[in-house]
Design a protein that fits this description.
24 helices; Serine Threonine Protein Phosphatase 5, Tetratricopeptide repeat; three-stranded antiparallel β-sheet; 3 strands; 2 domains; mainly alpha
């Protein structure tokens, strides 16, 4: 029985750019591999032909000169193994089991191979396969990536890309960020190769590996976590019969990963040249990465996935029954619209998050303001953004949105709520200023009424300098002096402020300030 998944039954309204780029990259690299293999094959054949012609003495342990085809095959195998060192233990193990040669003869056989291969390597080109493969005894992070993008033959790449296309677009859309999706795939690839290195080296057989299948099974494992009930369109081929079914992602994950795990433990290492260790470890890694880093993301999109599953089932029922109730159509359309709005909100949220985290504060603020198309902006929207941005990074964007939220709250006479935001902004910078200077005195009086004198002082402090006389500087200054003298117990600073304000005061105000300065001096 052959089970081939080919598409997630989800309407995600998003072009899977990263998925397509990975697929195109795999195809381009594979075509380059084919061209490189022709060059290597020709070089190996020419070497073996010359070796066969020039060899005089026949030795049963020196097999390479005896057959051009056999010699070519051995050289290509050694090339893929990275030389005789990686093949040495495999040959020794095989000879111990078969007992065809003595230990001395086995070592001599390997020395013959090494000598001829060294001669071949003097002038032979190095194939692209060898540069791209992952060698488990090196743990090279770069080859972990390049090996995932390269393949052994057409059947290998076609099979991997079909499975990749079945799961990757949905995961790319659901994780909410292209960069997170790329890091997810890289993380799965690293987990596969580290696990394979541990298993391979513990068995002393460091066979190189290539192919995207570890990443693919990782995405299958991830799908079992982040969208377990999502249905995957699947072909099932049994003998001469083919069925098309939609199967939940968790069932497919259990089947593919479970079957590979069973094969690993039951086959005793004989897996037909397929790196099933990478398959199983990739599937487990994909699920665990989802559980550790994407648990909140799964909860956020749970309703959306449920609605998509319900919509998928309804469409299947339509095809089978042929009749759809109008109220069900309307309900599904409404749910579809809700999903679209929620998806757009999530994408917008992610855009703002990325801008804030990369310190593009002006762009983040402009994006939030541009997204608010209402004639009468809601204070709650900006308060909500103020809290969100505060969880990410308390910098310019946080303060700018805070100013807008405070201004709207004051305009709606919600002075208490506005003061809470003022206090939070002051904690970030003592020099915080309001968006509307006309609100300074109003908020300062409210803060004094609530006995929050430090907040009132932070609003009033040197207002003529901070607001460039857009406020009533002397009125603000008189209130500031009163706070310093009576509530904050700083008479010397109050006296200094009284004298400083005289330079911008009217004659009547100067007399008041002078009297205050004299009283503070007394």
């Amino acid at each position: 029985m052959l089970i081939i998944p080919y598409k997630a039954d989800l309407d995600l309204y998003q072009t899977p750019v990263v998925t397509y780029v990975v697929m195109v990259t795999c195809v381009v690299i594979f075509l380059m591999q084919l061209g490189s293999r022709e060059i290597v094959n020709d070089a190996a054949f020419s070497f073996c032909r010359d070796l066969n012609k020039t060899s005089i003495e026949k030795n049963k342990l020196d097999v390479m000169p005896q057959s051009v085809g056999g010699c070519t095959s051995i050289i290509l195998q050694l090339d893929n193994m990275g030389g005789t060192e990686r093949l040495r233990q495999a040959i020794i193990n095989a000879s111990e089991k078969e007992a065809d040669y003595s230990e001395q003869e086995t070592l001599q056989y390997i020395d013959y191979l090494q000598g001829h291969y060294d001669d071949y390597r003097l002038d032979a080109p190095r194939g692209l396969d060898q540069r791209l493969m992952f060698y488990p005894d090196t743990l090279n992070p770069l080859s972990s990536i390049t090996s995932a993008l390269s393949h052994s033959d057409w059947l290998h790449i076609i099979g991997n890309l079909i499975f990749f296309l079945a799961f990757a677009p949905a995961i790319e859309a659901l994780v909410g960020s292209k960069w997170r999706f790329i890091l997810l795939m890289i993380g799965i690839g690293f987990c596969c190769d580290i696990t394979y290195s541990i298993v391979a080296l513990s068995n002393e057989i460091a066979i190189p590996s290539l192919g995207l299948s570890g990443v693919v099974t990782g995405l299958i494992g991830m799908s079992a976590f982040i969208m377990p009930k999502a249905r995957i369109r699947t072909f099932i081929w049994l003998l001469f019969f083919i069925w098309r079914m939609s199967i939940p992602a968790w069932i497919l994950a259990l089947w593919f990963i479970g079957w590979d795990a069973y094969t690993v433990f039951s086959a005793g290492g004989n897996t037909g040249g397929v790196n099933l260790v990478a398959h199983v470890s990739g599937g487990i890694a994909g699920y665990l990465i989802g559980y550790i880093w994407f648990k909140q993301r799964r909860d956020d999109i749970a309703d959306e996935i449920e609605q998509e599953v319900a919509f998928s089932k309804a469409r299947s029922s339509d095809r089978i029954g042929g009749v759809t109730q109008s109220k069900n159509i309307q309900r599904l359309d409404d749910e579809d619209e809700k999903r679209r709005v929620k998806r757009e909100q999530t994408e917008f949220h992610d855009q703002v998050y990325n801008l804030v985290r990369t310190e593009q504060d002006s762009a983040a603020v402009n994006l939030i303001i541009a997204n608010d198309n209402s004639l009468h902006p809601s204070a709650e929207i900006y308060v909500d953004w103020f809290k969100r941005i505060g969880e990410w990074r308390k910098r310019r964007a946080y303060l700018c949105i805070g100013r807008l939220a405070i201004q709207l709250l004051v305009e709606h006479n919600r002075l208490g709520a506005a003061l809470l935001l003022v206090e939070e902004c002051i904690q970030v910078t003592p020099n915080f200023v309001l968006a509307d200077p006309r609100q300074v005195l109003l908020l300062a009086h409210e803060a004094i009424n609530q006995h929050r004198h430090s907040v009132a002082y932070a609003l009033l402090r040197e207002s003529e300098k901070r607001y460039h006389r857009s406020v009533e500087p002397v009125r603000c200054g008189l209130l500031e002096i009163d706070l310093l003298a009576h509530q904050l117990n700083k008479p010397q600073l109050a006296k200094h402020r009284a004298r400083a304000l005289q330079s911008i005061a009217t004659p009547a105000e100067k007399e008041i300030l002078a009297d205050m300065a004299n009283q503070l001096s007394g």
